[in-house]
């Protein structure tokens, strides 16, 4: 990432690296990830992804990046309330063949949400939604995984399990992880950047 | 099916019943539009080339009698200029002149050999001729040359009907059939100023087209030259073959020129105009309903897109291509238009069949639903589908891409 006029920081993200962006509300944590994921395109500064200046990228190019390079969990989680937990996962599985249904179910079991697979996403708790969103994001191929406050409603134990799962999936693909949080998540493997 | 869950998501957001009422409106619109075109074709064909045998293509025109004519002054025939003017009209395919005999004819009818109930009588007659190409009976039976002993005569069929159901009934005379009349011969006394002749005549046929006593033109020419005054013939009436009997210019032209045209012919033209306007009106109503139906369908889908735009953007952010997101909506719109379009086509066919049955016309007699009409309907429906396909994709593109 080139120099950003908003944060006055120059950042370079290498594959396989782990980063956490820590700041209070309103400092631009979500905006940063939205810019990196292409949801927010009206920004000042420069951003190159795969040596392509993203300001000239088409919708089709962004679709391709999102299918193959970028994984993302927004703060709002973006689950589909009228679909079941499993159907939300299937939406991702049908986009790529990186994970099988069995492997996805294993991840749901790891995060202890397999028993609610048939429940409508709109009827589960926010903490359960966060874990489902994590599994969905891990079902696709990625080189950069962007997580916007992914553990806000998880207890320490579940947060630890989720973090280990994320790190192992990222390591398997030699992918970088960028997550945002209000407070340091306490994992020394993550490089901390204060906004 | 790829993206099966996406299809399910869109289906749940857009239950089919929501579009059922819309479908009914569209179906009505298509039915009216197609039916009006089919009805237009039907009434045109009912007066068209295929129906030429019913004589809708022939018209008799005459100059109205005036006081001057009654005083024996003036000319009741058509001038060369008038004939040329008429022949040069676009709606005129052919013109024939009625030529009258210029001598007295007394007919002697004796049917006593058939039975005492059949009368004998004498009466004065006249004959006319028209060019053979206008005669609607077997022309092999309708020819004469000087020296032939029997002159063939063609009677208007209406005269036989008038005799059988009018005169015979009132006089207590027996009715006669066409075949019986054709078996008879009767005597003709031809009386001119300086010469008389006697010949025999027989009925050679009955015409539905020409309302006069027809004899071959060769007989009229011979009679006028040898018995009559041998004056140059002057046509007082014309028989005209039209290119298009429904062309309202026909009757306007003759009326403005001061010629008499059969009242029923003028009425037919008026009826054709009314039917034409009616078809056009129904077509406009049908087309408006179609357009409104399609607009409301589009608006209905746009409304659904608007109420689910967050989910649509989520799908795009998840990595779904725009074409995959728009496809279920496009399929919904296209399916609805295809089903209602086909329904409209079949409903129109059934409607036209019912109308044809009502007017006692076999559907096979008329090619109302020709390949051209069906192809036109199919192409129009496909065109609407293509337009809807593009509009929906464009809408979703703007929804997910321009917002950022």
Number of strands of chain B: 10
Structural class of chain B: alpha+beta
Give the strand content of chain B.
15-25%
Q: Can you give the helix content of chain A as a percent range?
A: 25-40%
Strands side by side in the biggest sheet of chain A = 4-5-6-1-7
Low-pLDDT residue intervals, each spanning 5 or more residues of chain A: 1-6
The gyration radius over C-alpha positions of chain A equals: 16 Å
Widest beta sheet: strand line-up of chain B: 5-2-9-1-10
- The H/E string of chain B reads HHEHHEEEEEHHEEHEHEHHHH
Q: If interface size is counted as residues with C-beta under 8 Å from the partner's C-beta, which chains form the largest one?
A: A-B, 24 and 23 residues
First-residue to last-residue Cα separation of chain B: 31 Å
Quaternary state of this entry equals: heterodimer
Low-pLDDT ranges of chain B: none
Rounded mean pLDDT of chain A is: 89
Strand percentage of chain A, roughly? 5-15%
| Strand segment tally of chain A | 7
Instruction: Describe the main β-sheet of chain A briefly.
Output: 5 strands, parallel
Explained architecture:
The complex is a heterodimer of chains A (195) and B (404). With 195 residues, chain A is of the alpha/beta class. In chain A, the strands form 2 sheets. A 5-stranded parallel beta sheet of chain A has the order 4-5-6-1-7, with helices on both faces. In chain A, strands 2-3 form a two-stranded antiparallel sheet. The longest helix of chain A has 17 residues, at 156-172. In chain A, helix 3 (85-93) runs parallel beside helix 5. The two termini of chain A are 15 Å apart. The radius of gyration of chain A is 16 Å and the shape is globular. Chain A is built from 6 helices and 7 strands; from the N terminus they run E-H-E-E-H-E-H-H-H-E-H-E-E. Chain B is α+β, with helices and mostly antiparallel strands and 404 residues long. Helix content of chain B is 52%, strand content 16%. Chain B has 12 helices and 10 strands. Chain B has helices spanning 4-13, 20-46, 67-70, 80-87, 157-171, 178-183, 217-226, 248-256, 263-307, 309-318, 322-358, 371-401, and strands at residues 58-62, 92-100, 104-110, 120-125, 128-129, 150-156, 185-191, 196-207, 237-242, 260-261. In chain B, a hairpin with a 4-residue loop joins strand 7 and strand 8 (196-207). In chain B, helix 1 (4-13) crosses helix 11 (322-358), helix 2 (20-46) runs antiparallel to helix 9 (263-307) and helix 2 (20-46) packs across helix 11 (322-358). Chain B is elongated, with a radius of gyration of 34 Å. The model of chain B has no long low-confidence stretch (mean pLDDT 82). Classes of the chains: A alpha/beta (195), B alpha+beta (404). The A-B interface holds A 37-42, 59-60, 63, 66-67, 72, 74, 78, 80, 82-83, 87, 90-92, 94-95, 140 and B 2-6, 8-9, 12-13, 311, 314-322, 397, 400-401, 404.
